[in-house]
Amino acid sequence: MKTQAESNGIVTLTQEGTDLVKDSPLYNEGLRPTTKAEHTWTSYNFASLWIGMCICLPTYAMAAGLISLGMNWWQAILTIILGNCIVLIPILLNSHAGTKFGIPYPVFARLWFGSKGAHIPAVARGLIGAGWFGINCWFGGAAIDTLLMSMTDWASVPGHLWIAFFGFWLLNVWVAYRGPEAIKKMEAWAAPILILMSLALLVWALTKAGGWGPMLSAPSKFTTTSEFLVVFFPALTGAIAFWATMALNIPDFCRYAKSQKAQVVGQSSSLPTTMGFFSFIGVAVASATVVIYGEALWDPAAVLAKFSPFAIFLGTLGIILATLTTNVAANIVAPARAVENLAPRRLSYEAGAIIAGVVSLLMQPWYILENFGNYIFLWLGTYGALLGPIDGIAIADYWLVRKRRIHLTELYKTDGMYAYKTGFNSRAIWAMLIGIAIPFISKYIPGLHIIWDNAWTIGLLISLAIYTWMMKSDSTILSQKDYEQITSQARESKAS
């Protein structure tokens, strides 16, 4: 029986396939494979998604933070661009699965961890997403607080910072609650506005500082290559880890792509370029404030606070828009889907969004952002070490083990082939634990700290290799003949 159909590289369930699993406890409207009609996202939608996510206060802070660690402007920008070019590789590899089979990240994880084991990578990604959600709300709330104080007598209000934070947090949860389609529409019109506002800030800095020379003349604080590398490798891991979360749950968005070409072109053209562009603006504007005000202002809200009331008002709207477009797309969809996947018949995406918002408060973003060391070494470095091995397993399973052949209905069966024996794929768990353990142990062994400094990359490669070796003869692997027996093939058209 043909339970799935493939047309122009997109696989969907047939009516027979849907009937087989629609009553399964692992199936609901949010987790089911997308239909052909739902594959509507174009290259522009993916480009606008990334532009909206990259233009945010954490991007600005990361670039500024690298300067504070001793890099000059071009060292900081190149480190960020290199990190984003590296993380783009797993993003595109995992995007292929989401686009071809229309499945969200928690369902994709069932393929390699098992029907129950999928909760491990889904919840891990969800917790980190919730942490980022809180960080962005704190950034945005603090910025709004600063701008309100510059316009009104807001500073006299007791607990004004916390009021701004919780108000902004509620706004983010409300927007996220409305779902991925609302996110798509918001990103589409927000992206060009954010680009224009960023350029306006750069032009202001360039004009006030008297040209590029005074802005970008600060030298690197490193006198030797070894001094630079001590900071470069953990900074590079931090730049990679910045979007390592999206490298995992990018199927949540790519399941709506019109084609593989649409998602590849849209993402490749926007992620490294926008991160490099906005990081440069962060460095240039902060450097310009040294010339203009005699001190480096790394907080964009502090810069805007020195403008006219009307400019402050526009800047506040820009900060709200920049933070919203990042937060609801990058940081709430994954935890909401992870919560939904825990009990698909009882929990919805909307309930997951609310729960994820509450969890973000429990993770205390104010502590993570207390100093830049917490941000790049404790937060980015640690979760990069945790997510790298999961990324490696996902890539190995889809590309090297299964060779892009999936039996969709089996993903929604509690006793299906991807449930393995107990609901857990023990080989994935072992591959993940080994990939995490080696960098963590190396952190405390003299001479091996460089492994920890590159924990995401090394963990990914270790888990990828171990998982591929352990799964090479697994009974759940479909041969080409097996795949053809369950998949009806439509004639390819030039539109694909």
TrEMBL record:
<keyword id="KW-0812">Transmembrane</keyword>
<dbReference type="InterPro" id="IPR045225">
    <property type="entry name" value="Uracil/uridine/allantoin_perm"/>
</dbReference>
<dbReference type="InterPro" id="IPR012681">
    <property type="entry name" value="NCS1"/>
</dbReference>
<keyword id="KW-0472">Membrane</keyword>
<dbReference type="GO" id="GO:0015205">
    <property type="term" value="F:nucleobase transmembrane transporter activity"/>
</dbReference>
<feature type="transmembrane region" description="Helical">
    <location>
        <begin position="73"/>
        <end position="93"/>
    </location>
</feature>
<feature type="transmembrane region" description="Helical">
    <location>
        <begin position="46"/>
        <end position="67"/>
    </location>
</feature>
<feature type="transmembrane region" description="Helical">
    <location>
        <begin position="375"/>
        <end position="401"/>
    </location>
</feature>
<dbReference type="InterPro" id="IPR001248">
    <property type="entry name" value="Pur-cyt_permease"/>
</dbReference>
<feature type="transmembrane region" description="Helical">
    <location>
        <begin position="422"/>
        <end position="442"/>
    </location>
</feature>
<feature type="transmembrane region" description="Helical">
    <location>
        <begin position="189"/>
        <end position="207"/>
    </location>
</feature>
<feature type="transmembrane region" description="Helical">
    <location>
        <begin position="347"/>
        <end position="369"/>
    </location>
</feature>
<protein>
    <submittedName>
        <fullName>Nitrate reductase</fullName>
    </submittedName>
</protein>
<feature type="transmembrane region" description="Helical">
    <location>
        <begin position="159"/>
        <end position="177"/>
    </location>
</feature>
<comment type="similarity">
    <text>Belongs to the purine-cytosine permease (2.A.39) family.</text>
</comment>
<feature type="transmembrane region" description="Helical">
    <location>
        <begin position="227"/>
        <end position="250"/>
    </location>
</feature>
<feature type="transmembrane region" description="Helical">
    <location>
        <begin position="454"/>
        <end position="471"/>
    </location>
</feature>
<keyword id="KW-1133">Transmembrane helix</keyword>
<feature type="transmembrane region" description="Helical">
    <location>
        <begin position="122"/>
        <end position="144"/>
    </location>
</feature>
<feature type="transmembrane region" description="Helical">
    <location>
        <begin position="312"/>
        <end position="335"/>
    </location>
</feature>
<dbReference type="GO" id="GO:0005886">
    <property type="term" value="C:plasma membrane"/>
</dbReference>
<feature type="transmembrane region" description="Helical">
    <location>
        <begin position="271"/>
        <end position="292"/>
    </location>
</feature>
<dbReference type="Pfam" id="PF02133">
    <property type="entry name" value="Transp_cyt_pur"/>
</dbReference>
